[in-house]
Amino acid sequence: MKTKLLSILFLLLASFTFAQEVGFTAKTNREKLGINERLRIDFTMTENGDNFNPPDFRGFSVVAGPSQSIRNSWVNGKRSFEKTYTYYLKPNARGNFTIGQATVEIKGELYKTTPIPINVTAAVSTPTDGDNQEILSDTDIHLIAKVSKTKPYLNEGILVEYVLYVSPKVEISNYNIIDSPKFADFWSQEINIKSLNFINSTYNGEPYRKVVLQKSVLYPQKTGKLKIEPLAISLGVGVPSNRRDIFGRRLYETIDKTVAASERTIDVQPLPEKDKPANFTGAVGSFDFSVTASRTSLDATESLQAKVRVSGKGNFKLFEIPRLKTPASLEVYEPEHLENVNTNERGMYGNITNAYTIVPQQKGKYPIQPISFSYFDVNSKTYKTLTSKEILITVENGPLASSTPQYTGEENNTSVQKQPVVSAGKQFKYIKLDGNLSDKKEEAFLGSYTYWGLMLLSLGSIPILFMLRKKAAVKTPESVNASKKADKLAKKYLSAAKKNLGDSQAFYIALEKALHNYLKAKLSLSTAEMSKEKIEGLLEEKGVDTITIQQFIKLLKSCEFARYAPTSSTAIQEDYSAAVQVITKLDKEI
């Protein structure tokens, strides 16, 4: 009996020990890899199982597998068993990913692996392919990043080309960009390549075919050594296999291969401080500069357009155009900014223009003073300054104020048009010192004829005052004209916003700029003073109605809100109409 109990206990312990040896694990050959490398992952079970289910490998593509291997051995009377499923994975993007749980059934029990975190970085210079000799290919494929200039100046344009070299031994069936460079320290513009055409070339002295995959123009925004991240692509590559057809010709097989360009470093030089003009605003390249007027002779209240234009080749979007200088007696509106800029392999070229609308109010001659534009010429490595010519505006008909300076054509002209002086004549009389005064007997005012006359006059004037007030409430032609003028001014400032009624983001950017430009013109504000609190205080000082102020501030808040949340077309139309009304009210009240 005792022997039987011992035997049962031994069997229970043996089965418990065996059950503890059952395992199901996942193991990778690395936890960090470049986007141009491959990852190997093994799912191993210590007992033969059924219904193996791999994870979905989110963030990766399976390039090989599953391959299955079984190891079954006996050592010193002990059995050892392992069954492994192996996969080779290719990352699809940079970032942190997790290999999920795989599952398998072993003797009716469900086993799961532990999730494995994987970090995918930018492409590495010397990739390895996960120790899988079967998918390694001895193909000559090279992706090269070519930089037009390795020591550019700050804001000088350079060209980066990504060129793929392919050996005649292999064939390319397709390609896909899986990781594009970010160009974090550059202003960048990609150049569109219409078609990809292979041409014959050489690489390291050997015959190759090459194709340009991507071109970008970069303008460095920092000095010092800046890195250009690599481009990584996935290729379908046809490579010769060890198999042959019935005629003895080698058969090709297509493999999926990831290649990446090496990381490049450029050394950006600062612009020289010596001889830097005071009006230099960052223009680098080769430019022309001009100031022109649509006409130089007109009547008062007519308008002309003066254009300040910079043309040529360089960093057009990264500097400011100098402002036009006009006499204070000319009414000048905020300029309309016009761009006609294109980008090719040599960088940005074209022109940018600020167009000013000018409306003279009085007769006379008004000089538009010369203005200067400075830039750094990368060819001569020197600063250059271009100065416009003076433009004389002649206003032939209109009112002439005595305080208006009149241009005589002489330098430092300070002459003023002389007006005839009216003779005093008999406008003023001497005070008589001898007044021949006489004493007058004082009479009681209360109850006098004068007292009762004044009382009757006061009572009789009440109906007259009432009629005059009612008449004043009716709009005169002058007030109607003033209202129309204010409405026209509002629509002028809001013209850019109206053009973008179908584009929410562009509309609110233009609307906010229009509101700010209006306040700049009316209240002589600078951009730094454009806080809502400052605006509200200044409008209150000008005596603007509280409701009008609140409507204006509400519009500014709508512009800010639209940056972070989508806006309906109905709300856009309502805000435009509200802006026209508010500017019209402000113009009349100010």
Rg computed from alpha carbons, rounded to a whole number of angstroms: 42 Å
Work out the strand percent: 35-45%
Q: State the name of the first-level CATH class of the largest domain.
A: Mainly Beta
Distance between the termini: 114 Å
The best one-word shape is elongated
Care to count the β-strands?
30
| SS element count, helices | 8
Q: How many domains comprise the coordinates?
A: 4
Low confidence ranges: 12-20, 131-136, 406-430, 473-480
Mean pLDDT: 77
Question: What would your notes on this structure say?
Answer:
It is built from eight helices and 30 strands. With 590 residues, the protein is an alpha+beta fold. The strands form eight sheets. Strands 21, 23, 24, 25, 26, 28 and 29 form a seven-stranded mixed beta sheet that branches. Strands 11, 12, 14, 15 and 16 form a five-stranded antiparallel beta sheet that branches. The N and C termini lie far apart (114 Å). It is 23% helix and 38% strand. It folds into four domains: 18-121, Immunoglobulins (Immunoglobulin-like, Sandwich), CATH 2.60.40.10; 141-268, Sandwich (Immunoglobulin-like), CATH 2.60.40; 285-395, Immunoglobulin-like (Sandwich); 480-589, Four Helix Bundle (Hemerythrin (Met), subunit A). Mean pLDDT is 77; it is low at 12-20, 131-136, 406-430 and 473-480. It holds the Pfam family BatD.
